[in-house]
Design a protein that fits this description.
Layout lengths: L6 H8 L4 E4 L10 E4 L8 E2 L14 E7 L8 H11 E12 L4 H5 L15 H4 L2 E9 L8 H6 L1 H8 L7 E8 L2
Parallel strand pairs: 1-2, 1-4, 2-3, 4-5
Antiparallel strand pairs: 5-7, 6-7
Length: 177
């Protein structure tokens, strides 16, 4: 017996997803709109994220995921403004980028820059995004720096980052609209 697909089933299957995974690569997430410039299996939209504006309506997404992509793009500030535009009020933005002290920041020829906590707390960004959470990550050999980086991240970045380099910076932001 052939099963007929109902209108409701079609609506659920093709409904607009309000979560987006920008620069997803092979990290395909269920219930996300997965966007990348390459055609990996599971990518929903092929798009060059350096090209602004993005092909999405304003206030479309309640959750934006950017893991290891922002450092590859040409203009981080313009990208953040575009993230702001496509995000719904109070949307959450998760970002993972290489910390400026990381060897990986400068060894990868595709990386445009490294990031510090001030990248996401300066006055250009703080009027549009609220910092909810940050984490400076370290290799397992530098685990002893984790408590200091949590307690005094700006002290760590100013005085110790090049002595005990971090690997990544993970931030969680809330869109202020």
């Amino acid at each position: 017996m052939e099963r007929r697909i109902s209108f409701i089933d079609l609506a659920i299957k093709y409904r607009m997803k309000d979560k987006i995974n920008l620069g997803c690569g092979k990290d395909i997430r269920k219930n996300y709109l997965n966007v990348d410039f390459e055609s990996f299996p599971g990518v929903d939209k092929i798009y060059n994220l350096n090209k602004i504006p993005y092909p999405f309506k304003a206030n479309s997404f309640s959750l934006v995921l950017m893991r290891n992509i922002l450092e590859h793009l040409n203009d981080s500030y313009a990208i953040m403004l575009e993230i702001y535009r496509i995000s719904k009020p109070n949307a959450v933005v998760h970002i993972r980028v290489p910390h400026f002290s990381s060897n990986n920041t400068w060894e990868d020829l595709q990386h445009k820059r490294g990031y510090g906590l001030g990248s996401f707390t300066n006055s250009n960004i703080s009027d549009k995004f609220e910092l909810l959470k940050y984490e400076i990550e370290f290799s397992p050999y530098r685990f002893f720096m984790i408590p200091l980086a949590k307690f005094a991240p700006f002290f760590y970045e100013k005085h110790l980052a090049y002595i005990f380099p971090a690997t990544d910076l993970v931030v969680k932001l809330r869109v202020k609209k």
